[in-house]
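Build the 3D complex.
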Amino acid sequence: MNDLSVKIAIAEPSVILRSGLAAALKRIQGIHVQVFEVSTIDLLSNYIRLHKPGVLILNPAYWGIIDLHKLKEECANKELKCFALLSCLTDESIVKQYDEKISIYDTVDQLKDKLDKLFETPVEETTDGTEILSLREKEILTCVVKGQTNKEIAQTLFLSTHTVITHRRNIVRKLEIHSTAGLTIYAIVNKLVEIDEIKKDM
Amino acid sequence: MQNQHKFTARTRMSDLINEDASLLSSISRFGISLGFGDKTVQEACDANNIDCSTFLSVVNFLSEGNVEINETYNNISIESVINYLKNAHTYFLDYKLPSIRTKLLDAVESTAQSSSYKLVFMKFFDEYFDEVRKHMDYEDKTVFPYVLKLLKGERRGKYKISDFEEQHSDVDSKLAELKNILVKYYPSNGINYKLNDVLFDLLWCEKDLSSHNQVEDFFFVPVIEAIEQKIAAKL
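Done.
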């Protein structure tokens, strides 16, 4: 399966809370997290601008009230999701500007649910659980490997270009191979094409 | 405030390696060779003319595994880091990747049912190799000279270190793809020691490249940015 991959920044002055949360996040199944710990607030906006994390987990009890809207604007990162890390009772008006709240007593499952909720991806139309290519996908893969463009493939197989693109996306997802050179290896090894048919591109 | 880290100037070099074998490659990239007897980190660095706090910052950064953004990197020697990164480039381009190529060729030739395998695998690998070379050449020829000039207080043109960061693509992900192809789709029969050997090398190289990139992204770039800002403030 293709795991979701998320860059997460944790801004929290306590090393125990910071590293503990990082360890808990790494235990979440199905989401590959890359965690960055930020221990001083001055470096936060610089860091976000440079490394563009998808999620920021911030303890609102420290460093005074941070204007998240301004922060996102400063870092030119409007997509940034912000979680409040709560270690004590906090006034609702401070927390309401956050997308989500994490309590230091949350379980790994609760963390997973909260992340999943933010990154809900629509289920792809053809997901039937199998990672095996359909006949149509094999035909399209063969054309791709032979060096045909989407438009040419559409003409050969009497499909719309849009359909070809959808199929190609599904092929990449199923095989977890992104490059044409990689797909060529797959096609040769599985005898979908003969080397003579693609030699001119080699 | 002094931050607590795993290794200190008084740690013995041999203990450093026993604790974390992956540091072996970092040690040689700093230009320290094996056979250090009972030397401590400080002694080994002094003997090789290496800035000890830079060495410690890099090995602690790599070994602790968690990326922490703080200000403790201000007293490191940028020249040492650049040398370190350059040595790493030489290692990948002139030694490791060619060695993997030879092993891959050997493994594919000894198992493949047809000669076409050789062709497609080598094409994939060579395309990848070119990508890595381009990426590292750019750093050697554009980024590092820019930084060295910056250190001397010269700043010309509009180039910024964040430009580098913007186009810093992940060179380790395509290696992961090759690993994936071998693991999931390679039709081999029986036990294939040679193929396993290539896989071990690929896995190691992928990790090594990704931690190399982390040193660049989270260690090198932020320090340079801070220098740029200091210079800009003076103007």
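The beta strands of chain B are 67-69.
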